Amino acid sequence: MTKKQTVTILSPVKGDVIKLDEVDDPVFSTGMMGLGFGIRPKDGQIVAPVSGQITMVAETKHAIGFTTDNNLEILVHLGIDTVDLKGKPFEVKVAAGDKVQAGNVIANMNLDAIKAANRQTTVVLAVTNSSDKLASLDIATGFKNAGAKTATGLLNASVFNSKKQGKISKADKYDQLASDIVANVGGVENISSLIHCITRLRFYLKDESKANDDIVRNLNGVIDVAKAGGQYQVVIGPAVTDVYDAVIKQIGPEFSNDLETAKAVAETADAAKRPTTPWGKVKWGISSLIGVITGSMIPVIGLLAASGILKGILALLTTFKIVSSTAPTYVIINAMGDSVFYFLPIFVGFTAGKKLGADPVIMGIIGGVLTYPAIVTMASGKATSMFLGMGINANFFGLPVHIASYTYSIFPMIAGAWLASKLEPWLKRVIPTVLRMIFVPLFEVVIVSGAILLFLGPIITVLSTGLADLIVWVYNLSPAISGLIIGGFYQVLVIFGLHWAVIPIVANDIATTGHSYLNAIISATMVAQGGAVLAIALKSKLANIQELAWPATISAFCGVTEPAMYGINLKYGRAFVTASIGAAVGGFLTGLLKVNMWGFTGSLIGFTSFVNPKGLDFSFYGFLIASMATIIVSFVLTWMFGFKDEDVNTIKVAPKKRHLGENV
Question: For residue range 621-645, what is the model confidence (pLDDT) as tens digits?
């Protein structure tokens, strides 16, 4: 019979214990950080809730981490949204590495100072690895003194026993990998914040020189390391969200705060590190802009890709007369595929607000203003005059204005979120605390919505239209040559993580014209990486190469090329060159055949994106021709010149770090 083990957790502060779902913070209340409870404190003395070792003290002193003898990882978070108080209300009496006994005084928090800063004083305790370690956690709510027994946790027996037997679960593997990554990027104290994209952890580090690149890139589960755009990028592959969650679980939710990410570049670098030359300032600005675009677009890219596939399938159904464009079936499926595009300003407003530090809900409402049906109708109204190429189609208190259509738009909401991030702190300073709940949203919605509709929107519309026209003009100079150059070098941008700067250009292209020749060329580069790694998967007799190459092939043909590039092609050098040659050929044919694309999703999985919504045309067949040629060229060149098993022995890598439970 399996022995049940329990753990007792004390209240870290005197006050009223509440259930976790009553905590006014979605990261904690939804259980993202694990099981736990909240306390509405009556005084500011903080005691250790368990016996164990202090594993983390946040630089801003608002969070303390513990590890018990049972390997429970416990986080005590002092107040809600107190990270930006920069430690002023807190006095911490312990440091990482200290041993503590349950009930020891470890910190003090100034409740009055927190309230004066308009922050909540609620203390939150979360067992951050509860999904792996706890079968249950029983909470005794109500008033408790500091150090009083408050919760009893039942250890997960299967996990406990597997530990005793030296076995490591999937979740534990990510926990260990996360721990190794954090330790080798310079520790928690060197991390300003963390975001992720489809395949990469993107750290903002205070000092990149403290990171050990060789150790990080050779950890089991890490494909490679890249540095670009002010970010230290750890390429993970498809498991990136699992590793990201494991890292955040260890370092604390405040490091995932996009406000802190936005501030990291500006605030953590001292004057000596800031660029002083004109070119340095330009690069700094570009780096910051890419960071904003990355953080704003990453959460919606998957939605755009999925919706694009659905719209392509619907176009095929109507082309082959399986569904009529007037049938209710068509209307329902079209709403599923089109809603994310139509209401894109709402989603981008929310994500850009989080990224830049504005209230994301308010920014979502502002996005709703831009997509309000009457505004959309007004945008299509007849122009009474022209100004800078814009039709004057409305007036505001008698002032003639141009109202543009903002469905499908991106840049106006990013600009609006930037404006809101400057306006919101000022409003909170000048509006009394008792009136903020109503009047901050009121003024913010009115001012930012008005600014976008009357000024920012028209300006960005002119610039966006000009950018789209410039792309078309360059493309029309020679579609084939443009395709050759872009195809041959696009994946180099991916190496440095700079391809995210191109994503909004493609999105803007689709928003303004409904299609994108540029995205069609980019699609060919994904197919080329897949063709090259497919040749290696079939040619190699080495089990470890096949183990990497087959999943990487599937990933590349599904539009994610990092596993193929970093795991195989780039590592063995010539394979990346042969893949790039194949991409150049594919781009050349895509341009020569004037292949167009009506969706975001590229590579082979995105075949429906090449279906013209007005009816099947040569773009679809051109995509098939260019893709087949790309695969053949990449495959043949890689098979003949790009790779041989002997190459594996010539690649010198640092030894992989082994962990408990691995075969030796």
Answer: 999 999 999 999 999 999 999 998 8
